[in-house]
Design a protein that fits this description.
This protein is an all-alpha fold and 118 residues long. It has one domain (2-101). It has 4 helices and no strands. It has helices spanning 2-24, 29-48, 55-76, 89-102. Helix 1 (2-24) packs across helix 3 (55-76), helix 2 (29-48) runs antiparallel to helix 3 (55-76) and helix 3 (55-76) runs parallel beside helix 4 (89-102). It is globular and about 40 Å long.
């Protein structure tokens, strides 16, 4: 049963990624980084405030958004990534975060004021 849930998660990530790519095309690295940092903040807030009946769907939505943003940033950096690899979300997330860090990008860094560089 666990594999089915994880496969479903990979499908959610792949579907969301496909929709974004179709409607927006590939992002510039600066735009992708800004979106990733926004999703990372949202994910942390979601994890910190797990209350009420509807926290689970919101937590999954926040995780999917973060993983989509992470994948788009990795793609903009030409890091090999396949959304179907999110059948094991924690492992794929860690792999991509390490690849982004290896490219010299700090995910926890504060964003500079003003528009992102192009």
């Amino acid at each position: 049963m666990i594999a089915t849930g994880n496969s479903m998660y990979a499908h959610l990530v792949a579907s969301a990624l496909g929709e974004l790519e179709e409607s927006q095309g590939p992002p510039a690295a600066a735009t992708a980084l800004s979106e990733l940092r926004r999703c990372r903040r949202q994910l942390r807030m979601s994890l910190a405030s797990r209350t009420g009946r509807d926290w689970a769907p919101a937590a999954v939505a926040d995780q999917v958004a973060y993983d989509v943003a992470l994948t788009r940033l990795a793609q903009s950096l030409e890091v090999e990534c396949d959304p179907t690899m999110f059948d094991r979300p924690e492992q794929q997330r860690l792999r991509l975060e390490r690849a982004v860090a290896a490219a010299g990008i700090q995910l926890n860094a504060a964003e500079p004021a003003g528009p992102p560089p192009r």
